[in-house]
Amino acid sequence: MSTIIEVVDVHKKYGRKVTAVGGVTTKLESGRATGIVGESGSGKSTLGKMIVGLTTPTSGQVLVDGRDLSRLLERRPGRLEYRRKVQLVAQDTTTTFDSRRIVREAIRRPAQILGGLDEKAADAAVDGIVAELGIAPELVERYPHQLSGGQRQRLSIARALVVGPDLLVCDEAVSALDVSAQAVVLNLLKDYVKTHSLGLVFISHGLPATTFITDDLLVMNRGKVVESGETMSILEAPSNDYTQTLVGAYQAMEAAA
């Protein structure tokens, strides 16, 4: 197990008064899934954006192999290197797929741009990842509107994994799916993390999916990590008041199911 990303005391402020993230430190490792949970406005998605490189910390550092991510992203070679290393899967797949083109083209594109493959090799890479993830091959020949939400999300994951990243960041990736579609996506991700030593960041406002898929957990409230540790340890003995409320609600829901 090796460290992929190290987050060191990162803060993100908007203007003078709004602190979205206030002093988070953590390590993201290969072969482990880290959950980031909290209610809307807790700072979890902002933290995810800093890890992916979509926004820059106001202070603190995101380190990649000991290098500051902000510096790495200043030049095109560094940006390409990081996009190969870290991929994002978002809740909304409309920005992932062009409605005018079949899905194959969207998955093939990062294999060409980031992987440096020609069209034939990129198509082979698409077929390979689709088969590995257990996705019906005919789905990549369809347009996005011809697919269900669950199918689009699985293909979005295929697009992210086709370049062989070290870390996958999923931001509310299953929140809009029904329970059966969620189960398919979660099992797919869980298996892939273990078989490929992939690092995974799973961002969610709820505990059910997070507890199923993650090894470690960061609980965020008002921009800060109020509790962190192994997922099962936190579930069994939460120490923070906010975490206790989250876990209590989760356990009540499980008991009623």
From TrEMBL:
<keyword id="KW-0813">Transport</keyword>
<feature type="domain" description="ABC transporter">
    <location>
        <begin position="5"/>
        <end position="247"/>
    </location>
</feature>
<dbReference type="GO" id="GO:0055085">
    <property type="term" value="P:transmembrane transport"/>
</dbReference>
<dbReference type="InterPro" id="IPR027417">
    <property type="entry name" value="P-loop_NTPase"/>
</dbReference>
<protein>
    <submittedName>
        <fullName>Putative peptide ABC transporter ATP-binding protein</fullName>
    </submittedName>
</protein>
<dbReference type="InterPro" id="IPR050319">
    <property type="entry name" value="ABC_transp_ATP-bind"/>
</dbReference>
<dbReference type="GO" id="GO:0016887">
    <property type="term" value="F:ATP hydrolysis activity"/>
</dbReference>
<keyword id="KW-0067">ATP-binding</keyword>
<dbReference type="InterPro" id="IPR017871">
    <property type="entry name" value="ABC_transporter-like_CS"/>
</dbReference>
<dbReference type="InterPro" id="IPR003439">
    <property type="entry name" value="ABC_transporter-like_ATP-bd"/>
</dbReference>
<dbReference type="GO" id="GO:0005524">
    <property type="term" value="F:ATP binding"/>
</dbReference>
<keyword id="KW-0547">Nucleotide-binding</keyword>
<dbReference type="Pfam" id="PF00005">
    <property type="entry name" value="ABC_tran"/>
</dbReference>
<dbReference type="InterPro" id="IPR003593">
    <property type="entry name" value="AAA+_ATPase"/>
</dbReference>
